[in-house]
Amino acid sequence: EAQVTQNPRYLITVTGKKLTVTCSQNMNHEYMSWYRQDPGLGLRQIYYSMNVEVTDKGDVPEGYKVSRKEKRNFPLILESPSPNQTSLYFCASRGPSINQPQHFGDGTRLSIL
Amino acid sequence: GQQLNQSPQSMFIQEGEDVSMNCTSSSIFNTWLWYKQDPGEGPVLLIALYKAGELTSNGRLTAQFGITRKDSFLNISASIPSDVGIYFCAGRAPDSWGKLQFGAGTQVVVTP
Fold first, then answer.
1. Peptide bond into B8 cis (omega under 30)
2. Which chain B residue has the Cα nearest residue A105?
3. Which of B99, B106, B107 is the mutation pick for testing A, counting most A CBs within 10 A?
4. How far B104 CA sits from the closest chain A CA (Å)?
5. Over the stretch B84-105, which tens digit does the pLDDT of each residue have?
6. Fewest 10 Å CB contacts: which of A1, B26, B43, B72?
7. Neighbouring residues of A1: CB distance < 8 A, sequence distance ≥ 6
8. What H or E segment, with its residue span, contains residue B5?
């Protein structure tokens, strides 16, 4: 089954404690992306990757890092999480054509205390 | 940056009624997408539109790509309880390298 898998699904942690949210897709997609979803703001792009070792900032990259060492994986790293990063995070992927729609994971709810 | 305005923010409707929502952009898009998000899940693609004026249906859902390329609407006919969820529009600008802009979402609640 084609899918985008995120882990963990839920995490409560404290300010300053580094965390990583993993994202893996089994569709051999080139393009992967991270979004955060906040009430009334829809989905805002954090980082995206056009292919292995190619990443770029989205609209709200501050406080986040990503890496793309393998095609299937695109982890999101919060080196020093802060309460304003409490949010619902989604990873997405799509094939090489920009016209192809993105497939989303089921989300990771992060709470930073 | 580009602004996507999605309205209404929420809708409370009775089962069997039709639903209509729309998105407008401050600049032109080459692609409009409509997603639905159920609680605890990620957005799922409903309809994709790639040409100005295009009208596409998916079961009881119909979406149109506005001829100005700055708007799109989604209609749901004869709503049923499982239509409950948040509906998002998303658009891709010509020079955006595939980056999507999302609307803030329309929360649909269907009462029996």
1. yes
2. B42
3. B99
4. 4
5. 999 999 998 887 776 788 999 9
6. A1
7. none
8. strand B4-7
